[in-house]
Amino acid sequence: MRDEAPSCDVSFAVACYDALPYLDAAIESALSQAGVSVEVLVVEDHGSDASLAHAQAWQARDPRVRVFRTPANGGPGAARNIAIDEMRGRWFAVLDSDDLLAPQRSRLLIDVADAHGADLIADDLVLFGEGIEEHRFLPPELAAEGGRWIDPEFYFASTIMLGTEPNLGFLKPMIRKSALDTSGVRYDPGLRIGEDDALIVRLLLAGLSYYLMPEPGYRYRKHGASISHRLSLANAEKMLRSEHLLRADLAATGLAGRAYRRRLGSIERAVAFTHSVEAMKARKPLAALAPLLANPRAALLYALPLKARIGRILGRGQ
């Protein structure tokens, strides 16, 4: 881990797995941030396309781009941990390899964070992509109230898995590097879905302050390739195990109240639903019924379009 003084304002972590169709646009978007100095840390995660060589070509012509590779395919959390260890900026920012940034985004977020003394700062997302109508992510009532602090209770209430409201776990906050280092929190490399959410929860519990502003500055691309990594049963169970560890840590804090119990219950329902779906795909109807009998509310998920439901918890990557 680096301990020298920061040499730029923002370090963008780009976890890269078969990202070639969109990688140029993502890198250009980060390098074009106005009013800040930046570096782009591309961490290639053993994909099957030419992303590594392409990123290395960027590195050869622009010193702000630095390229790394995971020891083996480890998922986005493992890739981002490498970026954290290698970063030289005052702020850590995630940029998914198929997403884009508004040019003024970083300057605006840093100014708001500094004005409020926030350790984490996030903004609204703009969802876009082929075949969908461009729209904002946050509900209008949340955007209309202006900036607000996000405490653990509010975060738990706003991260209901497969819920009817937008899940704040999808936001892309920037994190002050000094606070990140003091917390000692890093990504759980065992999670390939929900890794950003797990990091944010741990940072909040470590005492970091989180401010949300309503302006949309992060452009979140939805496309066919972005849903190639289905919520497998193995990944669903890893999420639940991670949440059970969190519940144990919360036991002595007084934060495991109603909002958290709803969050945990939503994950348990999602896992039961995934068990049932996997059994149905294997043409084992009795096996598909068993998890629904154990968690009857999971059966309600069948009432909604399966593709849309699963799409809310898809990880885009490894």
UniProtKB/TrEMBL annotation:
InterPro entries xref list: Glyco_trans_2-like, Glycosyltransf_2, Nucleotide-diphossugar_trans
SUPFAM superfamilies xrefs: Nucleotide-diphospho-sugar transferases
Highest taxon above the source species: Bacteria
Signal peptide as annotated in the record: none
Glycosyltransferase 2-like domain segment(s): 11-132
Name this polypeptide is given: Glycosyltransferase family 2 protein
